[in-house]
Queue: 2 jobs
Job 1
Amino acid sequence: MARKASASLGVVTRSYVIRTFGCQMNEHDSERIAGLLEADGMERVDDAALADVVVLNTCCIRENADNKLYGALGNLKVLKEINPGLQIAVAGCLAQKDRGMIRERAGHVDVVFGTHNVNRAVDLLDHASQHGPVVEILEAAARDDGEAFPSALPTRREVDHAAWVTIQIGCDNNCAFCIVPAVRGPEISRPFGDLVDEVEHLAADGVSEVTLLGQNVNSYGRDLSLARRRRSADDDARMCGEVWTDDRRVRPLFSDLLRAVGQIEGIHRIRYTSPHPKDMRTDTFVAMAEVGAVCEHLHFPLQSGSDRVLSAMHRGYTGARYLEKLAEARTTIPGLAVSTDIIVGFPGETDDDFEATLAVATEAQFDSAFTFIFSARPGTEAAAMQDQFVAHDVAVGRYERLRLVIERSGIAANRRRIGEVEEVTIEGPSKKNPSMITGRTRRNTLVHFPAERPIKPGSYATVKVLEAGVNHLLGELIEVTIPARRRTRITVAAG
Ligand code: SF4
């Protein structure tokens, strides 16, 4: 029912919908799946009722991930009864974790694939249409397989001027609350030369802002010297970059990558997420200060201010050490904005532990924070600490107190900016008030301002800050400094 014939060619075009349930890494994987389906000739539609293929890209970092997945699958079962040709695929972290169990609970699912074989999406859909349902989960990404990195696959970007670039997959840490190492495997860094090539391609395609993505970006390169040893000298530059081959250093650093990407013509802004405080080094702060394109924004996940809880979480730093690194960052990078993640009510957290978190948060003076009440993720160490779970009403009370501390420092930081002129990237009309335009500052704050005529998303402008809220600024347009660049071709990321 959803197939349609192209008027000019008489070709039957299949259509798809992707629903994404997760974090930025998941959204980036969804862009890759969309790119693969479109490279295979499919067209995106917004309504599952009009699609031939529905892909649910799951995430088990988010709360209630399985309820959301099986709720969505229940709705799709009705659609499949009406349209038996509909193919339903489940991908992502929850698929990696639950594997065959997904088809046991939802027999109408045609394809299940995991985090290490996103590149197989089209082949698996083809296989299922010819031979019936298929579940394919790989235990780990192949180290030398360029396609293991989502950025190495065709892309359908959601916006023209900004792109995510995966620099590393997996994680070698074992934070007690986190399922990522189990579902994404050990850390693998993408070869340095491939990354630089990809950003050059993106810049040629009109992208001016890149966000370097990884679970622990500042340990980037840790594994590349080993990979290099298995290869010929000719591969040095591809694996580890020119810097490495010149300096005879053991491995490329994340700061080398910031510097290399910062030299690419057309790249005006560089962001990255997420670093780990224990691995944060001075050279990264120095590169952030010295490379003009790197934005003055650091997302620096604290998780807890209590040394006892940090130890139980296996975070590898203390509250004092975190604050030392933060002070170094602020001294090195003028005008730095800092955001963080904090979990309230981790199993065993006492009133004193929470007071320590409040004390660190107060001293840190964060610009913003993602604060969460602990919620057990099945399969993690913390989920098994049931005898130490904090009562929900206690956790809610702590959460509210922390929220006030964060709001106080956030609005104070925003008020200090009143009267300043800041550069923004235009994102488009304001979602709440379409007569206003929304831009994003280098410090990652949204600014809303009136404009006499529309300004194309991806343009850069200067705006004078007039008013400050907790999470946004209001301003007036000074001038458009760089008009949005026109896209020159359909994106296919470097491979
Ligand atoms: S560093 Fe910790 S929280 Fe981040 S992905 Fe790795 S295990 Fe999870």
Job 2
Amino acid sequence: MGISDSVIIKNLFTGHIRQIVEIENQCFIDPWTDNWFEAFILSDEISWGVYIDKKLIAYLFAVWDEDTLHLVNIAVKADFRRKGIAKSLLRKLYKTALQSKIEYISLEVRRSNLTAIDFYISEGFLLVDERIGYYQGVEDALVFRKELTTYA
Ligand SMILES: CC(C)(COP(=O)(O)OP(=O)(O)OC[C@H]1O[C@@H](n2cnc3c(N)ncnc32)[C@H](O)[C@@H]1OP(=O)(O)O)[C@@H](O)C(=O)NCCC(=O)NCCS
């Protein structure tokens, strides 16, 4: 049995913001701030964490938008990658979306983030658009989308 078979995904709460920001700062060149995380966690949007021994090792944030759930942030602590943890988070997102009659999951990713792009393609996301200069006017975003009616 792998680690991903035993991951516990729970709603995040504001007491975990310090741990979230630690992972966020390791993962992104334009990290979200603690104020941003706090507002998100206190909202009705989706904010989940993955815990091992009460320590946060991954998280996912998503926004409801009509027929779509928009994935706005997903990250796994570096030493826990390639163990199926992000995949487990997405599986829970698909299930939640389908229960709410949501048809699509969409997201933007930096053109240079080849790891994330490989991950989304492995999950069956399709490239549907690009946004030139989306990141601070200097890097393009690729827009990926997955149609959930095809998800078994
Ligand atoms: C992208 C990210 C969330 C993937 O998390 P993860 O838990 O390592 O991913 P998983 O173990 O669930 O991978 C599932 C599949 O995705 C693909 N994949 C994941 N990482 C990959 C990599 N580095 N290279 C190639 N394929 C990769 C593989 O097909 C993998 O299956 P396999 O391990 O059986 O081959 C993680 O690398 C991360 O946190 N990156 C930094 C933050 C980030 O860029 N987030 C995305 C912002 S848009």
